[in-house]
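Archive entry. Fields below.
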Amino acid sequence: MSLLIGASTIGLILALLALGVYLSFRIFNFPDITVDGSLTFGAAVTAILLVRHVHPVLATLAGFGAGFVAGALTGILHTKFRIHGLLSGILVMTALYSVNLHVMGKSNLPLLNEKTLATAAEHLAVRLRGGEQDVGILGWSVGLRDLSMLLGAMGLVGAVGGILYAFFCTDLGTAMRATGDNPQMIRALGVSVDFVLILGLALSNGLVALAGSLLAQYQGFADVQMGIGMVVWGLASVIIGEALVGTQRFGFLITGAVMGSVLFRLLVAIALRWGLNPNDLKLITAVFVFVALVAPNLVRRLRTPVPKPNPA
Amino acid sequence: MLDLDQILKTFNPGTPNEVRALRGVSLRLERGLFVIIIGTNGSGKSTLLNAVAGTFLVDTGRIALAGQDITRWSEHQRARLVGRVFQNPFSGTAPTMSIAENLSMAALRGRPRGLGWALNARLKGEIRDRIRTLNMGLEDRVDNAIGSLSGGQRQALTLLMATWLKPELLLLDEHTAALDPKSADQVIRLTHEIIQKDRLTTLMVTHSMQQAVNLGDRIVMMHRGQVLHDLQGAERARVRPEDLLARFDQVRRREQLDPAVAELLQRSYV
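PREDICTED_STRUCTURE:
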């Protein structure tokens, strides 16, 4: 039970990553690799501020801001300097590796004795429960610490998802969706496609960095390696989410990305419990995304009847 | 109103693919004038429209619109003054978004976009009312994705979007060329109504001599990146489709003559 709760919590935290990837990859059709760097960037900035005893809420917001800046930089490289989108992301991601090491001062920064959002959630739960450490759910005994973090993550992701949905319904958000859909049209209606893309990538990486910031606080450390392969992870969540909701409406897709992230994390936890070698995890994730990207086309091709040659 | 002064544009200069698309085009439109541009393929008529819209910046020359020099303005800045309908019916609308969402974006053409709700009940009501005037039965489907509509319906909606806020200049780039004849008729009738009602200054490119003669106050014929004929006033009033075709024939004969003569000369003298 504690395994499932832990997996769900990480799944919810990484749902923010999935939302970021949804924004860049599905709204703009922009394969943004900055994600691998900005996730760590958010974690690093939050971690160093927590070590310096900055309030956890401020430290988390700073983590979001760090990712926002990184994403904006990728956008500027791509739009203003006309560098290929993929390469812009790679450049910023690579640069961020050094930046992250500088921010943290070393490759791993533990947070075990710091006040974080995670400890704050735990304290709140303990106070509400009057000092009890375990809670019974459906006959299972569940650690209060685990439960409080799950609920905390749920509330936070729900709020962020809601804000993102609301944003997509505003004038600016609608223009952003249209930019991905038909840039020529939105330019003819007076919107600077460059500006919207920069803003979109900034938001996307802000969300990713927020996921990194929360992940660091949840697991109690920030590590310079923690972002590696995260863009594929987010993509897998988005694709699972699309399969789950089966529509193109963005409200459903936002919910789908969150559900996809949690489901994916649960599947991984179960697979690991069954003896999957953790070293194979990224390989399997990559293969999964490959199959998910190719399968729809393959199915379509198989369904289309091959025209028979005329018997001459 | 619109003032084009000696517009020059060369694509891929200095390469084997060099194209001198516009070679010194000057054109002056008074407010409320409906001008039709015709010309052979590659004559530069669409390029001229794109130059005015700001798809690219011109090499030399000056473009002024509504008293402002817009020569160096970017495309999205010019959108404040210019409404556009493209030849491709897919170009003017965002396919996965609803009819209402598309029109809500057009209602802010060239204006700053903030964090206000894109769609409210009042705007949605207004959208329904204006769509009803199209007589296409789309007013009950405003929440459907635009991608599910036919080319004619999408082009009619694009026209509505381009003119939702009255533009200083309306650009129509062969906007019926990709439609079936019935839809094309419908869109042309609609175009005529909207331009008449709002007295819009319009530049329209067309391939159809019939459209050129039926619509518009003035006909500009382009050839090889230059204005060849400019029919106005009494001359414009007398013109028939056959006259226009005859002028095209004239051009074609002159074109055919040149290479033939060149070949003849080469054979005799080299």
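CURATOR_NOTE: The interface with chain A takes residues 53, 74-77, 79-80, 84, 86, 90-97, 101-102, 104-106, 108-111, 113-119, 145, 161-162 of chain B (CB under 8 Å).
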